[in-house]
Fold this sequence. Notes:
This protein is globular. It has helices at 11-22, 28-38, 47-63, 68-90, 95-107. The protein is mainly α. It has one domain. Helix content is 69%, strand content 0%.
Amino acid sequence: MTALRVRSPDPRAVMNAMWKHLAAPEMWPLYRVGFALQLRDDVSTPDEERAAWAEVLIPVLRDLGFTPAHARDEALLWVATCRGLLWELVTGADEKSVHRAARRFFAHYR
């Protein structure tokens, strides 16, 4: 989140900025390579890598009122959901539909 330089007290603004950055078309080639590697039997994403992504999101979730334990679980939900939406983007789903789905997901946090 620090790299995004989002200066908003509103966690939803941070979420939307994160999605805008992650879903940018110039990022798609990186995801295609990453997803292709994940499909290989001998490659897996270590829990430490997932945990690193989740750790970055926990402060945003705490600002939304989640307890520390629930924030950690919710962060994993965000990581998994965004990963799924990115998969849809890079595998040919309608881009507008994927962005609408992301907005609907973030809208749950009002």
